[in-house]
Amino acid sequence: MGIREINLQEEIPHYTKEQVYGILIPTIGKTLEELDINRVFDKTVMNPKVTGIAGDVIEQSVFGYKANNKQIPDLNVDNEDVELKTIGIQEKSRGLWYAKEPCSITAVSIPTIEQETFETSKFWHKSQRILFVYYHYLSKMTVKAAGYKDFQVKNFYFYNCTDDDKVIIASDWQKVHDFIADIHKRYPDKESRKKEYPNLSTVVNKNLEYLDTSPKYPNAPRFRFRARFVTVIVQSSINNTYERSDRHYFGINDVEKECIEYTRRYKGMTLNELCREFGVDNNISCKQAGEKIIAKMFGGTKKISQIEQLAKFGLNGQIVVLNKNGGRTEDLKLSACPLDFSDFQIIDGEQKKFEDTDVYSFFNDYRLLCPVFQEHPRMIVGPDGKKMITQVIYGENTFEGFKILELGTDEIMSSVRASWEEAKRLVQTGELTVTVMRRKDGSVRYTAKTGIEMLQTNLPKALDNVIFFRGTGKDATDKVIVNGLKMLRQNYWVKGTYVVELLNKMKYLGEHQKG
């Protein structure tokens, strides 16, 4: 009967996949309140902060089975055990959907986990096949349980753990297992062990790729899929965002090894040479051409960050071009990290803490994979035929190697918090301003594409902080309204000189192997 005993199998509702489709397809577009035929929401009257209400509605009112807290999968579909997970998703810019938060799987059984192997673990039983039901978490603020009534079911998806994912998940699980087993080996008494368990979330989580554990001990910790991992699943099933290359990575170290090999092969080659090597049009900018070249190195065709395997590791590709003095030629836009003005709303006297925001999660969950190119400017005779001027021909830029920048360091997070707090202050005090941009002579500046007046805000700029805000959009008409003021959508940016300063402290991947 599979991975568990027959008596446990008999407790699980059995379905065919066709039956599941027949149950869930009619739910798409309906609110959780409309689906709640068994009045699950009634319990929110006495317990307004009850957790898991969306999942309870799907389990009890849609599938019609009673909730249980046993560490076994919820369903049996076509004779395979399947865990049912109802998760909130949110729409960001350009219709992309993101997981609202990490996906909790099952408890970390601290007293007994050292007797388990991964293959026999309760976690693996519940995570190898998952039926995700997505609901649209419409609110930008955390809502109480009754507030879920208006949230609509968006879609559903059967996730089957791939062989490659299994290797990585097993490695993550083993690290948790070994950490707890080591504590039990070194500390025979319970009180000493209790002092060590909190390091599970503060130390071990930093070394996990697809998983983390939360909450922090002494609260009962649970295994979770990281939000970035769940977001890849969501976007693959809804947006078709990613392409899967033919590469196999069983940890971030495998990506680093491939970076080292590409550096060995291509270091010193010009952009023109690399364009010919990889069949890329060299009539586009260095950044665009470099992005396509690096994506092709890793077996993709689009962008580095659209390669599924890299995205699951939280690797965002950012081409870095150094000028002749070793400085970066431009600031760095974090395209996946827009400023969410709803972070600053006060609802029922409550407001978001910085630690509960998407930007906090982004910086803690993602890394920058930085392919570095070096400019080689020429000295040429100017138009007057006399004066020598410097000219950069981007096709002559050379590829130098790769560096990976962790975004969640204390230093970077301090700067992120400072800009976020200042933006919050400006919005909440009404001091946020939008003014027309002018030249030094006082004349108004207009956009070349639309002929509309160029506007600027008093949000933190590069002069104020290394993490700052800059407007972005399809064109100057693509605006949002904040405090009654029209402005471009705002993105988090990182000052280019700061990125170079951080990268200069690091060696290129593989450089330490020299000598």
UniProtKB/TrEMBL annotation:
Official protein name in the record: DNA mismatch repair MutH/Type II restriction enzyme Sau3AI domain-containing protein
Recorded superkingdom: Bacteria
Pfam families in UniProt: MutH (PF02976)
Nuclease keyword on record: yes
DNA mismatch repair MutH/Type II restriction enzyme Sau3AI domain ranges (all copies): 65-172
Naturally occurring in which organism (per UniProt): Blautia celeris
Gene3D superfamilies: DNA mismatch repair MutH/Restriction endonuclease, type II (3.40.600.10)
Alphabetized InterPro entries for the sequence: DNA_rep_MutH/RE_typeII_Sau3AI, DNA_rep_MutH/T2_RE_sf, Restrct_endonuc-II-like
Keywords: Endonuclease, Hydrolase, Nuclease
